[in-house]
Amino acid sequence: MTGKQLGMSARLKISRIDLDQTLGCGQTFRWRRGADATWRGPIGDCLVTLRTSGQWLYADGDPKRKDLRARVSTYLRGADDIAEVQSELSRDPVMARGAGAVAGLRIVKMDEWECLASYALATYANVPRISLMIENLASKYGDPIAKGVHAFPSIGRMREASVAELRRCGLGYRAEYLAGICQAVDEGRLADMREMPDEELRDALLELPGVGEKVADCVSLFGFGRLGAFPIDVWMQRALLRLYGVKGSYSRLREFAAGRFGGYAGYAQEYLYYNERTLSRSGGCAFTRRGASSDRTP
DNA sequence: GCCCAGGAGTGTG
DNA sequence: CACACTCATGGG
Questions:
Q1: How far apart are CA A115 and CA A125, in angstroms?
Q2: Contacts of A96 (CB under 8 A, 6+ apart)
Q3: Model confidence over A55-80: pLDDT tens digits?
Q4: In this structure, is the CB of residue A126 within 7 Å of any atom belonging to strand C?
Q5: I need a surface site. Which of A75, A141, A176, A201 has the fewest CB within 10 A?
């Protein structure tokens, strides 16, 4: 093929979606925002550019992909009923006050393997560095899918790499964990895990080296689409203390969240995470503990 | 230079 | 059960 390809375009209706909230909140690591408010990133082996206009979401991608619309819709969980999510969560007064400000945030549905490997690297590192580690791995082991962009590497391809080689991608001590996960998991195992009930899946993930409760919950939520999962990191500890006055062990906070947020705890978690990390940085907290907006910075 | 980061594993009280 | 310590390294 010679000459520039315009690429295939698809138009989707995904209720209330906000790409900045959804792709910039830190749940996923490979999307980049352009100055024109477009977002570019890989979905599997397809590089996609997204933009919103009015109530429509436009997706541009590889012209050879006939399933671009389906891929994007699945990835952004277009079938989720956000009105119902918001309604359910708003039985909690704190959520009732702030959830509307983040109604455009959707949990993503990442590829299971990409999610597992990515969050295994996400321990004790900030989001920019996690992105760096992943891009290093992709450019070294992933198939090229566009100029300067590589797909996330397959399990098989990454399994062939030595620990020392992985470490050279800047993984630090995480290299051994990733290598161990590659040994313990294959496509068949991931397929089995898709069929497991939530708790069994969580236990299966916890058996993997370098996977603790927080990573297991992230992978359950963003990789396997279990919306009841509630990952707790330092930001969530702060949010739960500040907004609900609760603190304690992981299991204690987890039980609090399950009782308070139910089956959509994953959405509540991401709402609070986004609020704590992004909104409170600029002094514009959507969620407040009590009173309408009395504790906002004027 | 310093502190922090979407923690987990291991050992100890 | 709760802590304390270590792990390796780039970002802000």
A1: 16
A2: A89, A90
A3: 999 999 976 677 999 999 999 999 99
A4: yes
A5: A176
